[in-house]
Specification:
Number of strands: 5
Order of helices and strands: HEEEHHHEHE
Protein name: Flagellar basal body-associated FliL family protein
Mean pLDDT: 79
Organism: Rhizobium deserti
Number of helices: 5
CATH architecture of the largest domain: 2-Layer Sandwich
Low-confidence stretches: none
Shape: rod-shaped
Length: 179
């Protein structure tokens, strides 16, 4: 009789332990499944831009730049307009419509704020968080006087443009291999 009672107690303990263990394992699996999948991004290389700086109705110089975007690969497939066109439009808005750069005090320029405004502006136009990161490859200023001096020198010892941001090198995406 005691044997049967001990065997019954042993079966209960093993059953309860098995149920507890399987419940804990399923919670761990559910937590792992709930973790967001990593976002796959693609680099969209921007076109080189040259935008006039207009002051008192006259051209004072030009912004020279190239800015690239890191975009969510899946979300960017749904975008109807070319990303480089959206980028150029946003740059014209920031540099011409609402100037963010004080050319007399270039050191006060905040590149992180500039990147965020580009990213937020494009994402707002698209209605989704398509742009993940903005990379400034080049952002320089060349005054009209510097251009005229360099033209007069005919390529001998040109005066370089004024660096606004020290850019990063962005590699062009590799072409897709065809099978």
């Amino acid at each position: 009789m005691i044997k049967v009672l001990l065997i019954g107690l042993w079966v209960c303990i093993v059953s309860i332990g098995g149920v507890y263990l399987s419940a804990r394992m399923s919670e761990a699996t559910a937590t792992a499944d709930a973790a967001p999948a990593p976002v796959v991004t693609t680099v969209v290389r921007g076109n080189p831009i040259s935008m006039p700086v207009i002051h008192n109705g006259a051209v004072d110089g030009y912004f020279l730049g190239r800015i690239s975007l890191s975009v969510d690969s899946e979300k960017s497939k749904k975008v109807q307009l070319p990303m480089d066109a959206l980028l150029t439009d946003q740059l014209f808005s920031l540099l011409m419509g609402n100037p963010m750069i004080d050319l007399k005090n270039v050191g006060s320029f905040d590149p992180e704020n500039f990147r965020n405004k580009i990213k937020d502006g494009i994402n707002a136009k698209l209605g989704d968080a398509v742009v993940a990161n903005v990379m400034i490859e080049q952002l320089d200023y060349m005054s009209k006087e510097t251009i005229n001096t360099n033209t007069a020198r005919r390529g001998n010892n040109p005066i370089p443009a004024q660096k606004i941001v020290e850019g990063v090198v962005v590699e062009a995406p590799a072409p897709a291999a065809s099978h």
